[in-house]
Structure formats: C-alpha cells, structure tokens
Design goal:
It is found in: Nucleus. This protein has two domains: about 80 residues, Thrombin, subunit H, CATH 2.40.10; about 130 residues, YVTN repeat-like/Quinoprotein amine dehydrogenase (Methylamine Dehydrogenase, Chain H), CATH 2.130.10.10. Helix content is about 0%, strand content about 45%. It is globular, with a radius of gyration of 18 Å. The termini are far apart.
Length: about 240
C-alpha cells in the first residue's frame, strides 16, 4: 500500500524542480498548456496555429491539430480528452469548442469584442468562464451558443472556478480579487481583497489549489503570488529575480 505523498509549495521546493522531458513540435511560441482531469494527457496551443496533444505517462507526442484560419490560444480540456475549447487569434474573438477526435468544431461562443484573456472550465459540469480585454466576464454552457451570464468589470479580468465548481474568483488586472457564488453571481462578489501590487505588471492568470484553500496568481512581471483563498492574505511569493 502506498502512503499519500504531499508537497508544500515553497521557494526551495520550486527551485529544486528539474526538466524531465522536452518536446519540440512547435515552430513558434507556445501560448498555453492544460492537463486532462486525470493528468494523463497534456494539450498545448501555439502561435504557429497548432494544437498539440501529448501522452504524459509515456512521455510521447500523440497528435497535432491545426487551426490556420482562426489561430489558437488558451486551449482547455473539457470533461473528456476528446474535446477542448480555445480562444481565437485571427478573424474575431470567438471561443471555439473543438472535437479532438476529428478536428471539427462543435460550437462557437460569440460575444466578446476584444481579445479573450482567460478561460476556465467548471470541474463539475459544462460551464465555462471567459474574461476579455473588453472588461467583461462571461459565463457559457457548452450545450448552448448563448451567453448564460455577463459581469462587467473595472479592468481586464482573469477568472477561475474553485475545485467544487460552486465559487469562482476574478482578478482585475492589479486592482483586486473578487469571489463570486455561482448560484448568485448577479448579486455581486461576496468577498473582495487586494493583494500586494507590482509596478508595470498585470495579473495574467489565477488558479485554485486542489483543496480550494489557496489561490495562485501569475503575472507578466517577475513574481507569482500564493494567497489564502478565504481572506487573501499572502502565503508566499515566487520571484525570478
């Protein structure tokens, strides 16, 4: 019987990480990666308009798909390894729902008027959150092309569902982090906190820890913040300086 292993995410642990495998399928910058829910498959999108799928157990390349017409960014698995959603880099700012089995689009989600900066799939159902430079956060259901909810923000929002799919967090550039109850998000956030800000950098993504107790906020600067998800108190900061 194997005992459960835990690892505390602190600076010296992160600094001890080493490269285990290198993939070189892309000819341009990789703009996003995402793991399947079981961790066995990795998907990436690139500025070369490709979507690449990898087998993490075998450490092998499985398949490459191309989106030459629309481009590809922010690729995310849905609840199966056979489909994904991604934002567009060409033509418009539509979010596209793609069958990975036959490389055909299942549905389109139109509504954002500027570049989509954030996509987050609910861990429990077919709901999808998207944030855009148009300063709106939209809620979608993969079964319908119609927007299910709209929240106007004060700045460019990035968002993430918590592990139970009941709460989502929204970070507005470097202004604040807001927590919403999915069942009553139209009533506004139930908690707001303002972590430490950096000059000349924006928050680019945020993720809940698997137990929902922590929030990881990445930036386009030199730091990543780890916060208490309940009160916003800083736990640690990772710096590349």
């Amino acid at each position: 019987m194997y005992s459960e292993l835990t690892m505390k995410l602190v600076s010296y642990v992160v600094q001890s990480f080493r490269v285990a495998k290198v993939f070189s399928e892309n000819s341009d910058r990789i703009n996003s990666v995402d793991f399947s829910s079981d961790g066995n498959t990795l998907i990436s999108s690139s500025d070369d308009d490709s979507i690449v799928i990898y087998d993490c157990e075998k450490g092998t390349h499985k398949r490459t798909l191309h989106s030459k017409k629309y481009g590809a960014d922010l690729v995310r698995f849905t609840h199966t390894e056979n489909s994904a959603v991604h934002s567009s880099t060409k033509i418009d700012d539509t979010i596209r729902y793609l069958s990975l089995h036959d490389n055909k689009y299942i549905r389109y989600f139109s509504g954002h008027s500027k570049k989509v900066l954030s996509l987050s799939m609910s861990p429990v159902d077919d709901l999808l959150l998207s944030g855009s430079l148009d300063k709106t956060l939209r809620l979608w259901d993969l079964r319908s092309p119609n927007c299910q909810g709209l929240i106007t923000q004060s700045d460019r929002p990035v968002a993430s569902f918590d592990p139970e799919g009941l709460i989502f967090a929204v970070a507005n550039s470097t202004e604040d982090v807001r927590l919403y109850d999915l069942r009553s998000f139209d009533k506004g956030p139930f908690n707001t906190f303002a972590p430490t800000k950096e000059k000349d950098s924006d928050w680019t993504d945020l993720k809940f820890s698997p137990n929902g107790k922590m929030l990881l906020i990445s930036t386009n600067g030199s730091v990543i913040h780890l916060l208490d998800a309940y009160n916003g108190k800083p736990i640690t900061t990772f710096s590349s300086r």
